[in-house]
């Protein structure tokens, strides 16, 4: 049985809120320093990103090019009010080539190759169901347009294998999806289900894993301002190996909690069974919060190797909740985090 963690590299991180004055946002540590601003060449390609998804452009398609406007709420949010000194983005090449996505192979370099041999993520639909008043099945591009506009955030990413990245994700808060679904009072959790396509995905033809990949969050976790649904990175639509066309990003948890290539989202009353927790419950807890004080049986979590930092850079200390303690610690105030790992 394989017990490595699924997709930690660009594992399965932006907000749908309208832009607020900087003075109201300065406390948010998810907004990283000016030094990590996306390179200009990528930022200028945001029009291409929007054309692919049709966000806000469908209605303006018939307008002359000279009077078409950028969507007003497309914000980078990386300004002096959001500083986190000493943090740099992981290069796009590494984010898209160093991946845990076991549907496409166990080695880090396999997903980039295997997931791009004709596998298509259009057309693609998302189903929302379970204990909610607004169930629906909708085309992914219509879904993104419905929950747009798109926002960018730089998030720390921590794999349970004790390595880390910092990734610029494009997307919207998970809370906006929850609001759209209108969960019923008895809904306490959300279950996320990834794709199942053994015809195109050879790894899913084996019995080594209980496909499709599933994960879950409590409803309060899903409503936290950090929980995010990503549809792009580095200002471009998600690549197949990074969870195209739409994925979850939960930056205070180990990467395997962030489900890729979502097809179904269910609101449920009981804690859902999740893939890694089913395979090895002594190694992979349901909560999977980044915690330097609770080691994985095979990896110390006290420090982490920064991908792309260089051979002689050594390791850096791992921060509680991956550096997002102020935003999420209250969710677990009454819990024993050694037992509820």
Spell out the blueprint of helices and strands.
Blueprint: H1 40-43, H2 46-53, H3 92-95, H4 110-114, E1 125-130, E2 136-139, H5 140-147, E3 151-159, E4 163-173, H6 174-181, E5 189-194, E6 214-218, H7 219-223, E7 228-233, E8 236-237, E9 247-249, E10 262-268, H8 275-279, E11 303-306, E12 315-317, H9 325-328
Parallel strand pairs: 1-10, 4-11
Antiparallel strand pairs: 1-2, 3-4, 4-7, 5-6, 5-10, 7-8, 7-9, 11-12
Keywords:
341 residues, alpha+beta, 5-stranded mixed beta sheet
Question: What would you say about this model in short?
Answer:
With 341 residues, the protein is an alpha+beta fold.
The tally of strands reads: 12
Rg computed from alpha carbons, rounded to a whole number of angstroms: 19 Å
Biggest sheet statistics = 7 strands, mixed
Q: Helicity, in percent? A: 10-25%
Give the overall shape: globular
Termini separation: 21 Å
State which percent range the strand residues make up.
15-25%
Low-confidence stretches: 1-27, 34-83
Please write the string of helix (H) and strand (E) elements. HHHHEEHEEHEEHEEEEHEEH
Q: Averaged pLDDT, please?
A: 81
Helical/strand content category: alpha+beta
């Amino acid at each position: 049985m394989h017990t490595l963690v699924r997709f930690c590299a660009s594992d399965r991180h932006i907000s749908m809120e309208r832009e607020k004055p900087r003075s109201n946002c300065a406390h948010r540590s998810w907004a990283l320093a000016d030094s990590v601003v996306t390179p200009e060449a990528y930022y200028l390609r945001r029009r291409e990103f929007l054309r692919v998804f049709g966000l806000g452009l469908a209605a303006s398609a018939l307008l002359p090019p000279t009077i078409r406007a950028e969507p007003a709420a497309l914000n980078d949010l990386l300004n002096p009010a959001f500083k986190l000194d000493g943090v740099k983005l992981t290069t796009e090449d590494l984010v898209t080539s160093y991946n845990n996505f076991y549907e496409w192979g166990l080695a880090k370099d396999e997903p980039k190759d295997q997931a791009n041999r004709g596998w298509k993520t259009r057309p693609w639909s998302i189903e929302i169901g379970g204990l909610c008043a607004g169930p629906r099945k909708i085309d992914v591009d219509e879904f993104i347009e419905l929950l747009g506009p798109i926002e960018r955030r730089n998030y720390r990413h921590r794999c349970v294998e004790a390595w880390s990245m910092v990734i610029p994700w494009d997307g919207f808060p998970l809370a906006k999806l929850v609001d759209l679904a209108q969960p019923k009072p008895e809904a306490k959790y959300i279950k996320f289900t990834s794709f199942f396509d053994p015809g195109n995905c050879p790894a899913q033809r084996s019995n080594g894993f209980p496909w499709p990949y599933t994960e879950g969050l409590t409803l309060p976790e899903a409503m936290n301002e950090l929980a995010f649904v990503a549809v792009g990175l580095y200002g471009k639509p998600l690549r197949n190996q990074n969870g195209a066309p739409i994925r979850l990003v939960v930056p205070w948890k180990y990467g395997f909690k962030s489900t890729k290539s979502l097809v179904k989202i269910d609101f449920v009353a009981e804690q859902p069974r999740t893939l890694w927790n089913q395979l090895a419950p002594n190694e992979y807890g349901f909560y999977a919060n980044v915690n330097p004080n609770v080691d994985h049986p095979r990896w110390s979590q006290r420090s982490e190797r920064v991908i792309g930092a260089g051979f002689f850079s050594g390791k850096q200390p791992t921060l509680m909740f991956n550096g997002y303690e102020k935003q999420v610690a209250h969710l677990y105030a009454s819990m024993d985090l050694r037992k509820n790992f």
